[in-house]
Amino acid sequence: MKLNVPENRKIAPFYIFYIVTSAQIGMGVLGFQRIIAKDAGADGWISVIVGGIIIQILMFMIYQILNKVNGDWYDIHAYIFGEKLSKVFSLLLVIYACFKTITVIRGYIEIVQVWMFPGFSSFWFGLAFLLLVVYVINGGFRTVVGINVFSMIILFLIIPLYLYTVPYANPSFLSPVFGHSVGEIFNGVKGMSYSYTGYEILLFVYPFLQEPAKSRKWAYLGLLFTTCFYLYLALLTFMYYPEEVLDSLIWASLYMWKIIEMPFVERFDYIGIATWFIVLLPNVCLYLWVAGQMVKRSFAIRLRTSVPIIAGLCLIVLPLLENRTQIHGFIDFTAQIGMYLNAIYIPFIFICVFIAWKVKNREKKSN
Amino acid sequence: MINFFKKKNKPTKQKDTKGITKEPQKEIKSPKTTVDFLRESNDFKVVEYKNKKTGITFQLTFVMSLIDEKIMQESAISYLLEENFSQIEDLPHLLPISDMEITTDLSQLEPKLLNGYVLLTVENKMDKVCFFAAQKHVTRDITIPEIEFSVVGPKESFVEALSENLNLVRKKLPIKELIIEEFEVGQLSKTKVAVLYLEGITNEEDVNTIKQRISDIEIDAILDSSYIGQIISDSTYSLIPQNLDTERPDRTIAGLIEGKVVVIVDGSPHALLAPTTVIEFFSSFEDYFLNWLTSSFFRLLRVFAVVFSILMTPIHVAILTYHYELIPEDLMGILYTSRTAIPFPPLLEALFLELTIELLREAGARLPTKVGQTIGIVGGIVIGTASVEAGLTSNVLLILIGLTALASFTTPIYRMNNTIRIYRYPFLLLAQLWGLLGITFGVCLLVAELLRTTSLGRPILTPFYPLRVEDFKDSFIRLPFNRQSKRPYSLRSQNKKRFSKDKANEKKDVDE
User: Where, if anywhere, are coiled coils annotated (chain B) (predicted)?
Assistant: First the structure.
C-alpha cells in the first residue's frame, strides 16, 4: 500500500530529537549498569562512550539509506528485494516490535511486583497499559509524538535527582581506568545494546517528517543526549557502588533513588517507579505504532483494526512470562535481536541499497 | 389599552372555524392558512380603521405580544387616522418608521408577522401590502459580569438580546473590517446566530469551518449559545471544552483582535470564541489589566491550583493506602494521630468529603443567593467540624479537601471548572487501585486526551505541543504589551502583525 501522509499530519523536524531519545530510553536505563559492569567492570563507562560512537555511525548509515530511498522500512526493502519479500521483512519487524513491547511492559510489571505490589496482576495492568496505548495511537502519529515530548519533559525533571548521590560518591572506584581489555569493553558495548537500540525508529517515521533533511542534526543530537545521559548515570553509579555490590543490583538506577530525601518525601523510589511509567509509555506507543504501520503497508489493513489486534496478542503473552528467569531470558533474547538488527542488519541494507542504487542507475543509463 | 383599538372582525374571516384551519397544514406558506393558524391564538389581532380625512378603510394585522404598543400608537395609528392617507404608496411619507416595506410578495407574511411586524392592508386588498416594524424589545439592563468578575477593568457584560450584544462589540471596534454574518438555526426556535470576525485578520479557513458547522446544525431549538458550543465541538466525547465562552465584551473583542471567530447567539448572554487553547481557560481577563509580572504570578498560581486540586486528594489516598513509607517520620506522626480513630479506609473517607463538597456546591448553585450563603456556612463549617469530631473523617484530609475545593475555584472559566471537578473522581479510583502508579496512569490518560483534543481542528495544547515558542508570550506568563506585537502563531491569522514592534519599543535616552 502506498504511503501518503497529508501535510498537516506531519511533524516538524526537531521532534525527531524527542522520538529518538524516548525510543531509546526505557527499561534499559534502570539496570544497564550491572550488565556492562559484568564484563567491563568500572570501565563500563568507556563501553557507553564506544556504544555512543557506534550508534552515531549507524545513524549516519540510516540517513544515507533514507537519502537514497526516501521512504520507510517497507520502501527500502521493496527497493532492494521487491514488494513481495518486503512484506516478509515487514512482518518480521512486526514481531520484533511486539517483542519490544512485551519486554517493556513485562519488565515494568516485574519491577512493580518486586517494589510496590507483590500480587500485582500482569494481565490487568497490561490490559490498562495497552488500552491507553491504543487510545494514544488512535489519536494519530502526532499524538504519539506528543506523548514522547511529555515523557522527555518528565525525564528532564528526573535527571538532576541523581545528583543526590554525589556527596556519597567515591571517585576511586573508577580507577584503574583502562583496567580491562578491549574485548571486555566490547562485551560491555554489547550489554548496552538493549538500552541503545530504538533509534532505528527513524526508518519508520521518516515519511512523517516535514523537511526530512533538516531532521538530521536533531537525530544526531538525540543520540548524543542519550549517550551523555547513560554516561552520567554510569559514572554516578560506578562511583556510588563498589563493583561487588553492583553485581547484585538488577535495577541499580532504582536503588540510587533511595538516597533522595526531601522534607515531605522519604522514599523517592516509589515516586520514581510510578513516574517511570510515563517514560516507558512512548516506547510502547512507538513500537505498536510501528507494528501497525508495517501491517498497513504490507496488507493495507487500517491501524484502527491492526493495532488493537497486535496489542491483544501482546497481552496474551504477558502473563505467560511468569518468573524472573523467563522474563530475563526474553529480554536478553530481544536485546540480541535488537543488537543484530542494528549492528549487522543496518550496515547490510546500507550496502544493499548502494548496490541496488548503482545497478538501477546503470540500467537507467543503458536505457 | 386594548379597548383603544376598535376590534372589528370581518364577517368573511369569522366563518373560519377550527376544523377548517387544521386542514390545509401542508401549505403553511400560503397567506390564508398562515392567518388561519394565527387566528387560533388570542394575541393575534386584525383591526380595521377608517381614515378621518379621506375616509378609506385600512386593516392592521399583527401579533399583540410581539408589538410595542407605544410605537403603534404614537408612530403609526395616530398618523394613519389623521393625515391625508389615500393609497398604500403614501405610507413612506406618512409614518415616521424606518423599517418599512411595501410589497406584493406575500410569502414573507409569516416570518414578518411573527417577528413583530405589522401588516397593513387598504380596503382588504391583499395584492399590495405594507409591513412596518413595531417590535417590542424587552431586554435586561447591562449588568456587572458575575461569572468572570474582575476588580479592575470594564464592568459590563452581555445580555440576552443579540442586538444589544452586537452593539457592545461594534461600539468598541469601530472598523469596517468587523464582519457580522447572521444565520437562523433551529426549525422551531429560529434562533438568530451571529458569526463575527475581522476581515483580513481572522483565518478564513476557521471562519468557513464555523459557518459550515453552524449551517449544518440540525436541531429543533437553540436556547443558549452553549447548545451551539456543544454541537460545533470537534469531539463531543471529550470532557475538555473546545471553545471558550465568555460574558465579557472586552474578552470577546480581544479574541476578535487576536484572530478568533466569535459566535453570539440571540437569547444568550455568553459569546463563544474559537479556536481556543487550554491555557486560555486558566487566564482571566483581569490578567491584562494588571501589571504583567503580577498577572504572570497569578497565572502560575492558577495552574498550580489546578494540578493541586486534581492530584492532592488522590495522592493522599494513594500514600495512606499503600505507600506510607514515603512519608517522613515527623509528618507520619501527625497523619497517624489524625487517622487512628477513623473506621473507614482512606478512599471512603475522601469520597465522603469530596461528595459533601460537591453537594454543597450543587445546593449552593441551585438555591437563591441568600439561602445559598447559609448553605455554605452550614455545610462548610458545621458538617466539616462535626464529621471530624464524630471521628468519621480525619482533620488532615478535611484541610486537604478544603484546599483543593478552594484551588479549583480559581479557574476563571466555569465550564473548565466543572471539568476539573469531574476529573478528580477517576484519579481517586485509580489511586485506590494502583497507588501512585494509578495516579501517573491517570496523568498519562489526561495528557493523551489533551493531546487528542482539538478546537476547530487546531491542537488545544498549543503553544506547548505543537511547540510554538513565539506564543509563550501569552501562556503561563504574560509578557508586557510591547512584546505582544504579533498575533498568536497557532491561530494562523492572515495578518500576523498587531502593531509596530519598533515604535512600541522606542525609548528615549536618559534626560532627553
Answer: none
Which residue in this structure is represented by grid cell 522520538?
Answer: A19
Mutate to test the interface with A, among B308, B316, B430, B447 (most CBs of A within 10 A): B447
Peptide bond into A176 cis (omega under 30): yes
How confident is the model over A193-248, as pLDDT tens digits? 889 999 999 999 999 999 888 999 999 999 999 999 999 999 999 999 988 888 88
What is the interface size between A and B, counted as CB pairs within 8 Å?
84
Which of B351, B350, B377, B352 minimizes the C-alpha distance to B363?
A: B377
DSSP string, B182-196: EEEE-TTT-EEEEEE
Q: Measured between CB atoms, which of A11, A147, A264 is closest to B331?
A: A264
Q: Report the pLDDT value the prediction gives residue B85, as an integer from 0 to 100.
A: 83
Quick: pLDDT tens for B152-200.
999 999 999 999 999 999 999 999 999 999 999 999 999 999 999 999 9
Q: Which domains does chain A have, with CATH numbers?
A: 7-359 (1.20.1740.10)
Q: Confirm if A199 and A343 have CB atoms less than 8 A apart.
A: no
Q: Cell match 383599538: residue?
A: B5
User: For chain B, what's the residue count?
Assistant: 512
Secondary structure percentages of chain B, helix, strand, coil, to 5: 50, 15, 35
CA dihedral B90, B94, B99, B105 (to 10 degrees): -20
* Separation between Cα atoms, residue B482 and residue A1, nearest integer Å: 52
Q: Is the dihedral of CA B366, B369, B371, B376 positive or negative?
A: positive
* C-alpha to C-alpha distance for A280 and A108, rounded to whole angstroms: 8
Residue keyed to cell 497517624: B336
Tell me the nearest-neighbour CA distance from B445 into chain A, angstroms: 7
The SS3 of residue A25 is coil
Using the Cβ of B114 and the Cβ atoms of chain A, whether some distance falls under 8 Å is answered with no
Closest partner CB to A274 (pick from B440, B445, B465): B440
How far apart CA A222 and CA A230 sit, in angstroms, is: 12
